[in-house]
C-alpha cells in the first residue's frame, strides 16, 4: 500500500460547481437594467424580422433585387443578416406562406359566363316549312361539315332539327 494517500480537496470544492452569489446578483441586475431599456417583447429574432418585412422582401426579389442588395437594405433598417442566411429565410418564408394559403378556405369559383352561339337558333318549324327547306343529300353547307344522309326518324320529327343547338357548354358534367 501507498504510505502517503493523495491529499483531500478542501470541503467546499468537489464535483458540484460553486457559483459566486455576488457575481450572480450583479449579472441579474444588469439584465434587469437592459430589460428596462428595451423590453424583451419588442425584440425579434432574425426570422421574426424577415417575417415582418416579408412582403417587402418578396416583392423586391420578384422585381429583380439581388440578395446582397436586399441585405444592404435590411442592414439600413437594423437587421444584420448575410446573403446566404437571407436566401434560406426567404425560402422558409415562401414555404410558410404556401402552407398558410393551403389551409385557408378557398372561395367557391364564380359562375362562368356562357358563350353566345355564333349562329342564332332556329325557330320551331312546322313539317311543311321543314320539308321546304330540306336540301338534297349531296348538298352541304360550308360550315356544317361532311354531308350525311338524314335518318328516317329525324325526317318524321320536326322538333329534332329545331332543338339542335350548335353551342357546347363545357361546364356541364357528363
Describe the structure.
The model has no long low-confidence stretch (mean pLDDT 74). This protein has helices at 21-37, 46-52, 54-62, 67-77, 83-103, 127-133, 152-156, 158-163. Helix 4 (67-77) packs across helix 5. The chain has 174 residues and is an all-alpha fold. 48% of the residues lie in helices and 0% in strands.
Summarize this entry quickly.
The chain is mostly helical.
- What does the average pLDDT come to? 74
- Regarding quaternary structure, how should these chains be classified? single chain
Shape: elongated
The major β-sheet equals: none
N- to C-terminal distance:
100 Å
Helix content: 40-55%
Give the structural class: mainly alpha
The SSE order reads HHHHHHHH
* Continuous helix count: 8
Which residues form runs of ≥5 with pLDDT under 50?
A: none
Tell me the radius of gyration. Answer: 42 Å
The total of beta strands comes to 0
- Percent strand: under 5%
List the helices and strands and how they pair.
Elements: H1 21-37, H2 46-52, H3 54-62, H4 67-77, H5 83-103, H6 127-133, H7 152-156, H8 158-163
Tags for this entry?
174 residues; mainly alpha; 8 helices; 0% strand; elongated
Amino acid at each position: 500500500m501507498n504510505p502517503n494517500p493523495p491529499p483531500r480537496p478542501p470541503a467546499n470544492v468537489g464535483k458540484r460547481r460553486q457559483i459566486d452569489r455576488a457575481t450572480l446578483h450583479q449579472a441579474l441586475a444588469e439584465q434587469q437594467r437592459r430589460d428596462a431599456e428595451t423590453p424583451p417583447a419588442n425584440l425579434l429574432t432574425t426570422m421574426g424580422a424577415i417575417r415582418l418585412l416579408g412582403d417587402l422582401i418578396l416583392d423586391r426579389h420578384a422585381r429583380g433585387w439581388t440578395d446582397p442588395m436586399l441585405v444592404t437594405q435590411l442592414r439600413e433598417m437594423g437587421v444584420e443578416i448575410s446573403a446566404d442566411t437571407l436566401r434560406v429565410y426567404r425560402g422558409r418564408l415562401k414555404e410558410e406562406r404556401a402552407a398558410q394559403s393551403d389551409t385557408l378556405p378557398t372561395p367557391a369559383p364564380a359562375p362562368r359566363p356562357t358563350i353566345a352561339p355564333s349562329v342564332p337558333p332556329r325557330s320551331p318549324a312546322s313539317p311543311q316549312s321543314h320539308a321546304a327547306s330540306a336540301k338534297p343529300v349531296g348538298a352541304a353547307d360550308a360550315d356544317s361539315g361532311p354531308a350525311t344522309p338524314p335518318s328516317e326518324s329525324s325526317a318524321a320529327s320536326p322538333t329534332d332539327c329545331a332543338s339542335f343547338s350548335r353551342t357546347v357548354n363545357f361546364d356541364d358534367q357528363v
